[in-house]
Amino acid sequence: MDLEHLIELILPPIIGVLEMMGIFVVAVSAVRAFAEYLGNTFLHRHYALQFELADGLATGLEFKMAAEILKTVLVREMSELLILGAVIILRALLSLLIHFELKSSQTRTEEKP
């Protein structure tokens, strides 16, 4: 068994696990943020849920990007590589936007008296 065949056998399950981990992190973060939102609305609590949600989204995106990077090893055609590259760029931009929003929200929160 050569290395290329071994990689083709091992990588798809690893990629699938990474994808599922990313989905799980995003889903759990969304459910927790929604529960906190309900608590804020009905119990009049003050919890900055956007930080927790944005952090969960960023973490989930990191898992998804790891899976996309591993997919580049399996690419056979240039068209697949272009699509994969575009997906990676979009996810990286989303991750940067989320991190930027987190930092700017945190700065605004710290500046309030």
UniProtKB/TrEMBL annotation:
Q: Has UniProt tagged this entry with the keyword Aminoacyl-tRNA synthetase? A: no
Query: Which keywords does the record carry?
Result: Membrane, Transmembrane, Transmembrane helix
Name of the protein this chain belongs to: DUF1622 domain-containing protein
The organism's superkingdom is given as Bacteria
Q: Offer one Pfam family short name for this entry.
A: DUF1622
Q: Which organism is it from?
A: Ruthenibacterium lactatiformans
Q: Where are the transmembrane segments?
A: 14-35, 81-100
